[in-house]
Design a protein that fits this description.
This protein has two domains: about 50 residues, no CATH class; about 400 residues, 3-Layer(aba) Sandwich (Rossmann fold), CATH 3.40.50. It is about 35% helix and about 10% strand. α11 crosses α13. By secondary structure, it is of the alpha/beta class. The chain has a seven-stranded mixed β-sheet, with helices on both faces.
Length: about 525
């Protein structure tokens, strides 16, 4: 029986002093008795009575033990991977005066540079989510020739350019993984490791040279026989197939990605730089559209068991336009070097051969001149938008042709000499001119590349993407929060990297793993997150 007792005020202090020293015994009614009793509803007059009452209460009132609080481990707001932690430890232990004088090291090797190098040498970097383009997608696709988006460079446009550049890298990887093709049968479908998994490849594209080398060349160098083959995989067609990405971009995008020169016969075609008239024109037209002979040959020539690049791309785009009829579509053609030249021919062919052609835009990297003023006018009249990303130190962008200065060419054509120049276009074999809007970059703007980097570096696609990622405006320094990985650039262009950084990388004994060199992606697709 439990007695209801009241504790007199004068005994409160006594009980509070003594109760903590009493250990309670376990009982059948309370097998999980706490070490200390916490009730305040008993009355005591002496120690014996207190113990007795506590014992009775212990039997009649089972008390649950209080759980021991478990606190979660403190989370680091900026967690780092094991690889980054290892790199950080090496960097902190690095004795910089070992390579530079102390004063110079203090001036050039600031914590900001160390942090940037540490981040750029990592396998990947954290990027903010891609913004929704929505109703503005036509502006980013060149509807008004990218007015107001280039200088300073709009961040959304920067991300789009880098994304299309990575599509070109996938075309390079697809070719180099398996460069050989057979002249005896049609090629099988090739796997393309796309950088953005919201797209799927629908068609491999092949270009065929009209020239050939003697068969004895294959006998002398059988291991290099693929370099003498006339037909080679030059790119692919892909279409966005992810609903979330389609909603983000504001349309379903069809991408045509084309790599640069890779075989001997492609180089041979590049050298055939006389302007020739494009087929299907009126011979009496005052301004004839002409393009380089070798480029047109690669575009229009078919192989023994495969159609020409022109036929393949038109047929596939027609199929996709019909398949997604009723949806908002866009066509983006992107290429590097020779691929940039082919991209202009592809855009021209699609705009004239595909009924109800969706908006066509070209993003070209390091592209040469392709045709004359008549060809440029033809593309403009067909509403083809062209954005040329150009490194001012890249000589490939200045050939072929008579006019080295695009500014001089433009001034002459805007002057009273325009009619004279039109006559020259129709009669001179090297009256080339560029097409579209230009975004000019400069190797000297990069804090990592030597200002006198060689021709190969200035034309390298990864170097282009590095410069795009760091470009803010023509009158601004390199973007301080640029995040594109330097792994591939270091592996391929180490001799063109500034000594400040190559020495640091050597001190780290940095050896990029093969999987890091495949394609440093800066744009994780929504489907992969």
């Amino acid at each position: 029986m439990l007695l209801s007792l009241t504790l007199p005020p004068q005994n409160l202090g006594f009980f509070e002093t003594r109760r903590a020293s009493f250990k309670l015994r376990k009982s059948p009614l309370n097998p999980c008795a706490p070490r200390f009793f916490n009730s305040a509803s008993v009355s005591v007059s002496n120690t014996t009575l207190t113990r007795k009452h506590l014992s009775n209460l212990d039997k009649l009132l089972p008390v649950k033990s209080e759980p021991v609080p478990v606190f979660p481990p403190r989370s680091d707001p900026n967690p780092i991977s094991n690889e980054e932690a290892k790199t950080r430890g090496i960097l902190e232990a690095l004795n910089l005066p070992r390579f530079w004088k102390e004063s110079k090291a203090a001036e050039e090797v600031s914590p900001r540079h160390l942090n940037r190098l540490r981040r750029l040498l990592s396998k990947s970097a954290e990027y903010s989510p891609r913004n929704i383009l929505g109703s503005k997608w036509r502006q980013y696709h060149g509807s008004d020739n990218w007015a107001g988006l280039l200088d300073p460079l709009d961040e959304n446009l920067r991300r789009e350019m880098v994304r299309y550049g990575e599509f070109i890298q996938a075309a390079y990887h697809c070719f180099h993984n398996d460069p050989a093709t057979s002249a005896d049968h049609a090629p099988a479908d090739r796997h393309v490791a796309l950088p953005d998994r919201s797209y799927k490849v629908t068609k491999n594209l092949y270009a065929t040279a009209s020239v050939g080398l003697p068969k004895w060349v294959d006998t002398v160098a059988p291991d290099l026989s693929w370099m003498t083959q006339r037909s080679s995989c030059i790119g692919y067609v892909a279409v966005c197939d992810d609903r979330r990405e389609i909603e983000r971009m504001g349309r379903r995008d069809i991408v045509i990605a084309l790599r640069g020169t890779a075989t001997c016969l492609e180089w041979a075609e590049n050298m055939r730089d006389l302007l020739v008239q494009m087929p299907g024109q009126d011979d009496k037209a005052p301004s004839q559209a002409k393009v380089e002979c070798g480029f047109l040959s690669l575009f229009k020539t078919s192989g023994p068991h495969m159609p020409s690049l022109s036929e393949s791309v038109v047929k596939e785009v027609q199929r996709l336009v019909e398949l997604y009829k009723g949806e908002t579509l866009s066509i983006t053609v992107t290429g590097h070097s020779l691929g940039a030249a082919m991209a202009l021919l592809v855009a021209d062919e699609l705009s004239t051969s595909v009924p109800d052609t969706p908006p066509v835009a070209v993003f070209s990297f390091g592209g040469p001149r392709v045709g004359n003023r008549g060809f440029a006018t033809r593309l403009e009249s067909q509403n083809v938008k062209v954005l040329r990303i150009v490194n001012s130190q890249d000589v490939i962008t200045k050939v072929p042709g008579m006019f080295v200065s695009e500014g001089l060419d433009k001034k002459l054509r805007e002057s009273s000499a325009c009619s004279v120049l039109n006559i020259l276009d129709n009669n001179m074999p090297w009256a080339y001119t560029h097409v579209g809007t230009e975004l000019k970059l400069d190797t000297k703007m990069s804090p990592f590349l030597k200002p006198d980097a060689d021709v190969a570096c200035c034309h390298d696609l990864e170097a282009y993407l590095h410069l795009v990622d760091g470009f803010m405006a023509s009158n601004c320094p390199f973007r301080p929060d640029s995040k594109r990985s330097l792994v591939k650039l270091l592996d391929e262009q180490k001799s063109n990297m500034k000594r400040l950084y190559t020495n640091k990388v050597n001190a780290l004994s940095f050896k990029p793993r093969k999987e890091l060199l495949r394609m440093p992606s800066v744009l994780p697709s929504p489907s992969s997150s």
